[in-house]
Design goal:
471 residues, alpha/beta, 15 helices, 19 strands, 32% helix, globular, binds N-(aminocarbonyl)-beta-alanine, binds zinc ion
Amino acid sequence: MNTLIKNGLIVNANSRNSADIFVENSIISEIGKNIPDAEKRADEIVDATGLLVLPGAIDVHTHFELPFGNAISADDFFTGTRAAACGGVTTIMDFVTPEKGESLMDALVARRKLADSKVCIDYGLHVSLPGSGYDGITNRIEEMLDVVAAGITSFKVFMTYAFRATDDEFKAMLSKAKELDALIMVHAEDHKKLEELRAKFIAEGKTDAWHHYLSRPENVETKGVETAIKLAKETNASLYIVHLASAGGLKAVERAKKEGVHVFAETCPQYLHFTNDVYKQSDGQNYVCSPPIKSKESREALWEGIKSGLISTVATDHCPFTLEEKLWGKDDFTKIPNGVMGVENLYPYMLSEANKGNISFERVVELCCANPAKIFKLAPKKGQIAVGADADIVLYDPCKDFQVSVKNIHSNTDYTIWENVKLNGYPVTVYSRGKIIYKNGEFSGTAGTGKYLSNHCKSPSGHFDLLGESC
Ligand code: URP
Ligand code: ZN
Ligand code: ZN
């Protein structure tokens, strides 16, 4: 199947130009003003006059079907990737979370088996590394080699939750990752400080959602980020800070970058749009995520970081729970399953900000496509409109306005924190490897057609993929 996309404005991270795109099966094969015989060779001709032609976004931080306490996040790998597709996200990266006593490799294989038959866009995985306090296993570091050999290039470390690593464990993980040319991602919050605050508030009977925020305020994240950066500096390893939400954390990233530390910061749309005032609302529990949404000052600092280049990526941390599950903690914030939704809103939200003139479209493509692709080794096939790249393409109408509602999104959720948010411009057509998976409000993808993206598959030496299929 050959598709010609004509007359659009192609936007990449560092350029925009009016040109046509020729897609042969799943790959962009030609880009130019007068592609020879293009109309004759095309099975389908699409007129993109007035539209932006963008690379599909890459959301490198989702949690589909994640067990959290007594709940499991509401989107599975089908509904989650369906929602992603309908918002112009054509690749997601989710997490492998070993159960107590389970090896990293067993957990990886199990996660692949769960996801493969459900995904309708391409996906990759990071592996979460538990500290020994989680299940008593002390040799997780040794398992990292097998994981890297299986094609995974990124690990996640937690500084809090039951999964947390001690500073010594975290440091050893950073050293090993450096040796293996892998990347450590970190959930950076100071565990000791937040536990003290939580215990104090509970003892005082201060248990509403506002105290979720007050138990994990700006300085809890800042201290976590500072510690993580110190350990990265000591080991000379690269570090990727997930869901950065605070001005203080961002300052620490700025100082580290000036000192030459190899650190990347990710933030999420919920931290760019809302403020901690949401936790004072009667439905404050619906916004509970960790780290919590911070102050107006932090939100402004994050926008400055987006504009200055200090922030490298925007991803969602998509982890929705139902209204009923959120209500479990109405009178005790420690019982609220942590996480909010956004995979379908990420790209439209950021593009809408560009449409309003707050940032450039090129910068949105850099944050949501090109940088994630480079950092997580998905480039050059992903993250750009280029000859040889996968035909993951979004046709975006800057004049089509959209008002988000739980009624018009494609997640398996019964509410959205994005309800009633008005967006200027919206994706009209989304292609995954050359096939239309979304058009004008309708999903048209198929479960199981997304491909697992393994770094192993880049090897020309005939390596085999994890579940036995050749790359
Ligand atoms: O509240 C959140 N973010 N839930 C998902 C797990 C995590 O910490 O990323
Ligand atoms: Zn986290
Ligand atoms: Zn997360």
